Amino acid sequence: MDDHVIVFDTTLRDGEQAPGFNMNLEEKVRMAAQLERLQVDVIEAGFPIASEGDFMAVREVARQTRTSIVAGLCRTRRNDIDRAWEALQHAQKPRIHTFIATSDIHLKYKLRKSKAEALKEAVRAVKYAKSLCDDVEFSAEDATRSDLEFLYEILAAVIDAGANVLNIPDTVGYALPWEFGELIEKLHENVPGIENAILSVHCHDDLGHSVSNSISAIAKGARQVECTINGIGERAGNAALEEIVMTMRTRPNAFNCDTKIKAEELFPTSQLLSKITGVAVQPNKSIVGDNAFAHEAGIHQDGVLKNALTYEIMTPESVGVHGNKMVLGKHSGRNALNDRLNQLGLHVGKNDLQKIYEEFTKLADAQKNVTNAEIVSIAKNNMTCQRANGAAKATEPELSEAGIS
Ligand code: KIV
Ligand code: ZN
């Protein structure tokens, strides 16, 4: 089995569909350029039939993208496919991504179609898309709540019609990790012709399992994963790209495959998205959150100062973050305080450190955390013999520039 897991980024389509994450053409183009720097394999740029703005953004991303495949989403209707192709045709590597729902619930209440009708439409759409574009992906929307036998049947039929990528969305985030892995195994065993296609997964986070479900599917042979930066997307979001990538990088022995993502671009990409959309990343977000490499507890700070491996399973630099952060607050210990004093150019003896520490903890108890200026002031008031080397005179902006805050 291929050891390359294709990363299909849908930040600009599924991510942008979420309330508050709208991006205009210029913002989508800027984001797409950063996704290329991150080395994603596929950029899903939008849903061209959805609006004139989306159409123009997909067309512009398609024109400007050099190395990544650019995908556009469309339903199975002919005019949807035509509109997608109109937007994509000038891409170096275009992909038409067509989908239809396959679950009984969606067929009965949303589409009001029988299984036979849906299958016929899917086949017709894939054949038509294939007549326009070599690269055609088919998604069985709500696959995880679909009748399994029907899923086998429709997937086999669209492979026959020319689809080279088959995407299995957990559209409503309903699957559990072991179930989703089993589903991928069963598809490999029971869909005729599956060896000629790439099996892809697309997981939503309604129950918080989107990354685990994606990882479980990769372990069972899925070779494309659909995900978004910061996990943005419909409702509770999509699987977070950075979490999937770093799971595989941090635990390489658990996988026989990897992505081609340039991990040092993960944090810059996350920051750019946050800046463009105006939506902050939650501080405790894995990999890219403000606290992902921050330590406040005394025991942890002591461990990290001795060897970062004690409490860090990846280096901040490996994901593009400049160093870890020691937050001085009421949980901090003497060792971290002394380290900060040294960074500030203040070298104190054991007795002075004890006095400074006592004053520091009083202040830390009264407020959330203690600034460098406050630490310097406490130190100066409690040092019997000052041996500052001048750095204590550094201004707050200079210190924070040096990563000391
Ligand atoms: O969640 C979903 O089912 C989708 C498909 C259109 C791929 O976004
Ligand atoms: Zn989705």
What does this structure look like?
This protein has two domains: 6-277, Alpha-Beta Barrel (TIM Barrel); 294-401, no CATH class. It contains 16 helices and ten strands. Helix 8 (177-190) runs parallel beside helix 9 and helix 14 (350-366) crosses helix 15 (372-382). It has helices spanning 11-15, 25-37, 52-64, 78-88, 104-111, 115-132, 148-161, 177-190, 210-219, 241-250, 266-277, 298-306, 334-343, 350-366, 372-382, 396-401, and strands at 6-9, 42-46, 69-74, 94-101, 136-141, 165-170, 198-203, 224-227, 294-295, 325-326. With 405 residues, it is an alpha/beta fold. An eight-stranded parallel barrel has the order 1-2-3-4-5-6-7-8, surrounded by seven helices. A two-stranded parallel ribbon has the order 9-10. Zinc ion binds at residues 14, 169, 171, 202, 204, 234.
